[in-house]
Amino acid sequence: GAVVSQHPSRVICKSGTSVKIECRSLDFQATTMFWYRQFPKQSLMLMATSNEGSKATYEQGVEKDKFLINHASLTLSTLTVTSAHPEDSSFYICSARVSSLEAFFGQGTRLTVV
Amino acid sequence: RKEVEQDPGPFNVPEGATVAFNCTYSNSASQSFFWYRQDCRKEPKLLMSVYSSGNEDGRFTAQLNRASQYISLLIRDSKLSDSATYLCVVPQAGGSYIPTFGRGTSLIVHP
């Protein structure tokens, strides 16, 4: 089946620094990718929808200047958490839409801001 | 009403038991539904899809009730390895597939 690779799987950074998370579709082209965030014991919340070659669409309440999304190619989308703070510590997961009815998920990135 | 709602549980059942949980959705136009399984700190993995009345795969049965706008997941002969969080996914309104997750239902199968 389709494979989505997300990197890094775990990152610890200092408050105020920026962190980049990569999401790659390995054996298919993904014109649309999704970025989610999951806090402990909560559901996966959609942060933004990333479309290749165009600006991402952010969900209400998600700061586009803080969470920079770049989808420059059909196989790579990146999420950069800028000026990270402890409250940004979370589990971030990307997903690539395979068809109109299906999406596959990356392994997730555990971000800890200290 | 939230777009997708699930009872968070946990559902605590012995091995061999049959357990079922539901997921209600608000978008009556939704055509496809999915159950994902998520183990602790791991990514969600597709368990089953439901496009019409239902779907069965081994010990797992998913059913759709359009009139009441819910889908259910039934697990027969529970195994210890079934312990996980089960996420219901419903596409957002508008036709293009944007997965919207329920909060998830926690299942614990004990010996």
Structural description of this entry:
- The complex is a heterodimer of chains A (114) and B (111).
- Chain A has strands spanning 4-7, 10-13, 19-25, 32-38, 45-51, 57-58, 67-73, 76-81, 90-99, 102-105, 109-113.
- Chain A starts with a strand and ends with a strand.
- In chain A, the strands form 2 sheets. In chain A, strands 2, 4, 5, 6, 9, 10 and 11 form a 7-stranded mixed β-sheet that branches.
- By secondary structure, chain A is mainly beta.
- In chain A, a hairpin with a 2-residue loop joins strand 9 (90-99) and strand 10 (102-105).
- Chain A is globular and about 40 Å long.
- Chain B is mainly β and 111 residues long.
- Chain B has strands at 4-6, 11-14, 19-25, 33-38, 45-50, 54-57, 60-65, 70-75, 84-91, 99-101, 105-110.
- Chain B has no helices and 11 strands.
- The interface between A and B is medium-sized, with 26 and 21 residues.
Summarize it.
The complex is a heterodimer of chains A (114) and B (111). Chain A is mostly beta strands and 114 residues long.
Q: What distance lies between the first and last C-alpha atoms of chain A, to the nearest angstrom?
A: 37 Å
Q: Report the strand count of chain B.
A: 11
Characterize the biggest β-sheet of chain A.
7 strands, mixed
Largest sheet of chain B: 6 strands, mixed
Distance between the termini of chain B: 37 Å
Radius of gyration of chain B, CA atoms, in whole angstroms: 13 Å
Topology:
The complex is a heterodimer of chains A (114) and B (111).
Chain A: E1 4-7, E2 10-13, E3 19-25, E4 32-38, E5 45-51, E6 57-58, E7 67-73, E8 76-81, E9 90-99, E10 102-105, E11 109-113
Parallel strand pairs in A: 2-11
Antiparallel strand pairs in A: 1-3, 3-8, 4-5, 4-9, 5-6, 7-8, 9-10, 9-11
Chain B: E1 4-6, E2 11-14, E3 19-25, E4 33-38, E5 45-50, E6 54-57, E7 60-65, E8 70-75, E9 84-91, E10 99-101, E11 105-110
Parallel strand pairs in B: 2-11
Antiparallel strand pairs in B: 1-3, 3-8, 4-5, 4-9, 6-7, 7-8, 9-10, 9-11
